[in-house]
Every structure is written in C-alpha cells, then in structure tokens.
Amino acid sequence: MSKLINSPRDYVDEMLNGLVLAHPSLIRHGTSGRVIRRVDGPVAGKVGVVSGGGSGHLPLFTGYVGPGLLDACSVGNVFEGPNVASCSEAIAAADTGKGVLCLYGNYGGDRMNFNMACEMAEMEGIETTTVLGTDDIASADADQIGKRRGVAGIIYAYKAAGAAAEAGGTLADVTEIACRTVERTRTLGFALAPCTVPGAAGPTFELPDGEIEMGMGIHGEPGIWRDRIKPADALADEMVERLLASAPASTGTRLSLLVNSLGATPLEELYILYRRVAAQLGAAGWEIVAPLVGRYTTSMEMAGASLSLCFLDDEIENLLQAPSSCPFWRVG
Amino acid sequence: MSKLINSPRDYVDEMLNGLVLAHPSLIRHGTSGRVIRRVDGPVAGKVGVVSGGGSGHLPLFTGYVGPGLLDACSVGNVFEGPNVASCSEAIAAADTGKGVLCLYGNYGGDRMNFNMACEMAEMEGIETTTVLGTDDIASADADQIGKRRGVAGIIYAYKAAGAAAEAGGTLADVTEIACRTVERTRTLGFALAPCTVPGAAGPTFELPDGEIEMGMGIHGEPGIWRDRIKPADALADEMVERLLASAPASTGTRLSLLVNSLGATPLEELYILYRRVAAQLGAAGWEIVAPLVGRYTTSMEMAGASLSLCFLDDEIENLLQAPSSCPFWRVG
C-alpha cells in the first residue's frame, strides 16, 4: 500500500515532531530526541514509570505518556528496539529520587538495551526495577510464560502501574502491581494482511487475500494456524476459549476486555467481534468492566485484530478506573 | 482485503449491537433498531440535535452521540442513506418540545429521506430545521457551494451545535451556529486504496498500488487529479494552499484543524502530515487551536486521509472547547 511519507530515513523523527505538535502535553527529549516525556514531568516525589519500544505501533508506546500513566518512553526505529542512550535518557527523565519502573514488551533488543540502561542508572544512584509484558499466549506455551511476547495487553499494566505511582506507591508497590497486572492479562491476535516497513522492498510477511493467520505476532512472528478466513463468530469463540483456557488461577469473576485493531481493520468489524466475545464471556460467567474497543496497539497498516483479557482483582479494577490523561486512553 | 464479519446481511445490525454493548452511554432505538440515541436522552428543555447517514464511516455518525454533541442518529446500510422511518424516529427521540436540528451530509438519499421525515414531524407538531454539511471543496466549485458534499468537517458543526444546545440555545440559535460552523469549515481529502462494501463483488473503485487520487470522496466519488504518490510534504503543501484559497471571507486568525485517516492509513503517517500542515499554516499566519489527529470519519478499510480547517470566531471556539462526552471526540 502507498505510504504517506517523505523518506524512510525521516519517518520516525517526522512522526515524533507531528506527535508533540499535535499534543502539547508531550515533548521530545534527549540528545537525539528519541524520548517522549510528559511536558509537566518529572513529578516530584512520584515513582517514575517508563516504557519504550520500536516505532510503528501507535498509539503504543508514546501515546500513553501522561498523568496517571507513563512518565516517559524511549523510541526506536520502526520495529527496532530503542537504543541504550534513549533508554537511559527516559529513565533519567522520569526519576525524582523515588526510583523508576521499566515496563516494556518481552523482546530481545528492548531487553538488552533497557538492561544496560538500568545498570548505568544504578551506577548513577537511580534505583530501577523491570517488568516485562508477556501477554501473548500464542508466542509460547503455558509452561514457558517468560518466553511470551508482550502485545496489546501491556496497556493494562501501564494504567495500573501509572495509577499506583500517581497515588503515591513506592517503587516496590508499583512494581508489584505492574507484575500482577501482567500476570493476569492474556492476549491472542490474528493477522488478515501484512504491513510494510518504510523503505523495505516488500511487506513483512506474505498472507494471501482471504486467508488468516491465528496467533501471528505484531511483527509477523509465526502463529498457531493459517487457513481461509472464517466467520467472525467462529473466530471469537475460538479466541475466547483459548484465552479462558490460559487464564491464571483464582481470577475472580470480573475482567476487562480490549478488542484491538492492528491497523487497517475498521471499527465496524471490531464491534461485530466485540458483540460475540462479550456474549461468550457473559455465558461463561464473566462480568465485563470498562471494555476498550479501538486501535490501541497497531502495526501501521496491518489488518487483523487482537483480544486481550485482564482478569481483575479489586485493586487492579480501582487502578484501571482511576483518573488519567493522555491522548489515547479512553473508557466509556 | 479479508473482512472480519459473519454475513453481509447482518453487518450493520451486529455492528450496532457491539457498539451499544461496548458503550453503555448509547442505546439502539426504533422499530428496526436503526437509531442510536443517548441512553439518558432526551434532555427536557433542550433543543434536539440529530444526524444520520450510511454505515461504514465509524466513528461517524453514531460515535458522536452524547452530552454536548448529538442526541440521536439514524443509521442506513453501508453507504446508503437511512430510511425515512429511522429519520423520523431519530427526530422524535430527540424532541422535548423545543424543536430539533437535523444536521447531516449533503447527499441525495439522506436529504430526500430526512426531508420527508421533517415534513412528517412538522405535522405532528415537532419544529425542525435542517443544516447540510458541505465542507468538501473537491466536490463542487466555489460558486456552487450548495452542491458540495459533507465529509469529515461536519464533526465541527456537531460539536458547536451540540454545545450551543447544551447551553440552552433556542432552535434558531442552534441552527444558526451549525450553519455558521459549516460555512467556516473546509475539507480536502485523498485516496490511496479503496474499501469494499460487505457482500460486493469488488472494491468501490480501482486505484493501482502506488497511485493517489486527490479530492476523491469517501464513497469513491471522482476527485481532482490522479497520479503517482508524492511526498507527504508536497501533498500537505498543495492541500493547505487549496484549502486556504477556498477560505470564507473575514475569518480571523485562528482555526482548528483535523487530520483524519480514512481508515487504513496509520497514525504515524497522519502525524507526518500534521507536522507539515501545522508549519505551513503557521507560516501563513494562522494560529491552530485544539487540533484533532486520528480516525474521525472513515470508509472502513479505505486508505487515505483528509484535512479539515474550521475557521474560528470567538463563539465557535468557545463551543468547540465546551465539555462534551462521547466515545470518540477528544482534544489534547
């Protein structure tokens, strides 16, 4: 598909310039401008919450910077982890002496660079902790949860950890709540059509028109099965079944639910999916709280959708409902 | 592109069911459920503001139903105007004796059915007025503004009229502000790839990969020129020049700006476009107020974008900034 760009080389920087121009609550920061932070941050006395990752997933990650959510994000090139310098600068930008939680998706490059940045921060006297998003149930089996990738469900951890930090939690408190929210969140997605990285010779993967790949990752990582597209209700039923089968133990009766477009798949189709998913969850005895439907984690113009369940306890539910302000989190 | 649906026949009704399940502030209404109205409406003593149109453009039209915005919307099939019955039911659902403004896009089918519904409403003692969205400068020349179609810019009129009604304006007041906002709003869009109506044999139009059609309408109506895709900045410059050349007389120095994706075009590209548009408007002496960047008026998975300018006066600016609540209007 044709892209509305100037040159692949300028893609990320021009995108970030537009982002901060359109949203004055955000500002570019750092020697190469590859950090987005709150214009009013850091907030004295508050634990910092930082994320980061490759570009091409808006509104992830930078769209969730704001009061009650993230303090700063490091920004990589398209589908590439952020470099060590930008991770360090994001951590420093969020620090006010109370420590910083680094909360990001479980990808090798991101992990390596954030780990190095955390070591350097510790040497400078900034206490850091790390929690990895691992919500994608298609990316590894249940006995290898630590190998699972982080996808759309990480926004639940952003919201819970951000609210806990805003409420005055210690670094240990905020880290624990992020960890618990990740542990209680499960995502499964599917692809209907690929995207193309700016400047690449072709799309990130091949998927013939009319076919679907269940469980495919947001960078085109291989999924569980590939077949002709099925009716939305059949897909909803399979996804709900797989997600509930992978639920953590002792999860209560309430959950939040995110039906997310990977990009091109329109809102109309998300609502068709939502309708069936909500009915199936209701039939299974689950009460749905503050559902989200829209584009929360994308891969540019990739077509497909994902379904995330966040199994609530009272504390996580209260934190998800706490006030926050950013360009892209909305409930209702 | 593969669609996430069950059957073309059930597309609209299943979509509406999902919409109201996900957003409890909205409810389906009317004999065939083809009206979306505020669950807490109608609000006694308030002028009603109603819109409507074909499906496939979410969040237009139904996503803008809420306090400070629309009271009700009639909903047609994909790319088809709503029927007379649903227009009548939307008007009746919004009426509390103060009259109802019908504010919708300038399309033949919509006009015919709303006109008939208004005549019937008048016979039942409901006073109605009509304002048509005519913001698309590519759809007719300046000397035939009444022939221009309504596209994304109509949301500015929704917001201003909705806020005026919420503030206690009379039907004449609310109608005048809607009319003035339409008169001060201009939109120009372009297509990069078509969408497909559910159940149709093929896409709504042909546009070879790598080509762009400037001025194409949201249903594939013919535009101004077709060529190979150009750099984003060149497109921004042309669009700003055409929009400013078509500005109404005596418009002050402040404007709001909507950079809208038609569906598949991702946020990253909208920000790249926004950056240049904002710079060019600034260089031309315009101050930008409360810009919007995102998907506000789509054609399902169509690729492309549109740019809307709303030339402000003090009253319209205050109304755009007034509190409102709906699933899809956001500023900041």
Automatic annotation (TrEMBL), chains A, B:
GO cellular component term of the entry, any: cytosol
Q: Which UniProt keyword terms apply here? A: ATP-binding, Kinase, Nucleotide-binding, Transferase
Q: Which GO terms describe its biological process?
A: glycerol catabolic process
Kindly name one Pfam family recorded for this protein: Dak1
- GO molecular function ontology, one term from the record: glycerone kinase activity
Q: Which SUPFAM superfamilies match?
A: DAK1/DegV-like
Occurrences of domain DhaK (ranges): 7-329
Query: What is the protein's given name?
Result: Dihydroxyacetone kinase
